[in-house]
Amino acid sequence: MGNLQLRHASHWESFWFQVGGGILIAGVLPYLTRMALGLPPNDYAIHLYTLIGVVAATVVAIWLTRHIATYPGQEAASSLLPSFGLAYGTLLGIFILSRIQYNRVSLVAGLVFGFIWMLFVLTTSQRRRLRIGLIPIGNIQTLMEIENVDWHLLHSPDEPIDGIDAVAVDLRGDLPDAWETRLADYALAQLPVLHSKHLMESLTGRVELEHLSENSFGSLTPRPAYRVVKHAIDWIAAAVLGILLLPLMLLIALLVKVTSAGPALFVQERIGSRGQPFRVYKFRTMTAAVDPTRDVREAAITQSGDSRITPLGRFLRKSRLDELPQLFNVLKGEMSFIGPRPEAAVLSRWYEQEIPFYRYRHIIRPGIAGWAQVCQGHVAEVDEVRNKLHYDFYYIKHYSPWIDMLIVVKTIRTMITGHGSK
Q: Rounded to an integer, what distance in angstroms lies between the CA atom of residue 43 and that of residue 277?
């Protein structure tokens, strides 16, 4: 959590705990594993040099992770990728330029295991309740509704701040001179002073619609270079997974056909990139019978405990296996692995009429898994969708490899726990 770790930290936020765990998982365990496999005597020196390098790079990466990020919450994870990339990239450069022999497998293992360790640490440490001082200037009501934070209103610049992790203030407002002086004192005392709008986005993982000024709206334009790279990675991964998972998909298709009447695949028109409609593929999880008396929009909404869901369909939904046919949508360039979930065309048209800026979520390809999906779960009503859109805007604003990796981790957890399924 950046500088927040300097005050009232749990052991998960302790620098030495993080370093100790990182060295053990990223360096020592891979090294001992390689030794246990039995290596030629002349390889011991190579693996020892690699171990020393991995330990040094892991320590540097953890130090950078802690000092790059200032805000708690989701933003803390954004420093992981650049920190580990810089530390291990520098180590690789040193090995190459100095012509020191090293083991590539151990080096990559150190990078991957160290990254996973710190991602786990950050995810765990975010569960700790923070105590944040809040200067009551501007709109603070929405901020005080955020859970897992103990808000302490600072009514006076002279009020004691013992036990406070940070101070939040709306820096867009006109602050009295006494408060401006006091904020400088907080900063000199190494107590983080956080902009309330930025803090709310990082704690909730949402960009609120009410704050979309012309400037912030422009800042939500996704990075073009990453879009190209991501599309290439999506296509290659979908091709490989499509081949590997084809037997499983054929088995699921057969089970769907055997256990309930109707086609194995569910095909529905949804809205994709740039607002263009496309046909999405899923394994059918509901009965194929259509109720002619049911409203079209109502039929497109899946309710909790929906009676149309078959027993097999409930398992497929909970495990997310019903999404596997969307690998073909990825191959066709209609979807990505990660992105805002595509809505049914009939629902999308409804939401566009009710929610300002809703169409903006179509600026990137929709995904099989998304930030809103792993943070909020499945929703359909307008008020819930409005909140979901805040998550979509946060993803678009922070469109990068780090948030995609975080979604992958959260999606794995979702597949195991079934969070958000209906």
A: 57
* Between 302 and 318, the higher pLDDT residue: 318
**H/E/C letters for each residue in 304-354?**
CCCCCECHHHHHHHHHCHHHHHHHHHHHCCCCEEECCCCCEHHHHHHHHHH
Pairing verdict, β 336-338 and 149-153: unpaired
Do the Cβ atoms of 167 and 133 come closer than 8 Å?
yes
Predicted confidence (pLDDT) per residue in 251-271, tens digit: 999 999 999 888 999 999 999
| Span 238-244, average pLDDT | 95
Considering only CA atoms, which of 5, 110, 124 is closest in space to residue 60?
Answer: 110
Cα distance between residue 190 and residue 184, in whole Å: 10
Range with top average pLDDT, 179-183, 225-229, 328-332: 328-332
Beta-bridged to residue 369, according to DSSP, are 338
Q: Kindly report the CA angle at 192 between 190 and 196, in degrees rounded to 5? A: 165
pLDDT for 419 equals 54
The answer for 138, left when phi > 0, alpha when psi is -120 to 50, beta otherwise, is: left
Q: Coil, strand or helix: which one is 134? A: strand
Q: What is the pTM of this model?
A: 0.73
